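The protein record now logged underneath.
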Amino acid sequence: MILNISTMRYSFSVLLATSGLLLGGCQEILDVKPETQVESSTFLTNSANLQTATYGNYSMLLNNSLVARFHRFTELSSDNVQVLLAGDNATTTSIGIYTYQHTSTLLGLNVMWDGAYKLIYASNQVIQAIPDNAPAADLQLKGENLYLRALMHFSLVRIFGLPYAQNPAQNLGVPS
């Protein structure tokens, strides 16, 4: 197949014009925010959206990586288990929990810490959006989010907090 110069120029001109139209017409589409990101000040304005946000908070709580790590870390630091250093278990990275040596290199520690504080933040968003004189259904949602926030703080203090009785001035738990 042989193309002459005039056919190639015509094809190039059509391609250039089409590209210009397509690229110029996309400007409005690119300015739209993704559907997965909504400002809390515009979203948390009615009961249905507050309920949806609370469901989202519960789904964060049900995240297996968060719940499994809380369970593992609380059990390993209790008297309910004994870690045996034999075979492949001798190189486990969770042994620091068993020996009360919490460091940032422990397996999954940052995932658990980040997940807990994401849930605390999300719960705070719902709590702040509901005034104290709201309808009973909204106050129920506020109470559920207060509980979720308290549960995360309690779990974090159980794992990372030093005993309050040892030094009440300094051992206040974890950052809120």
Remarks:
- The first helix runs from residue 5 to 24.
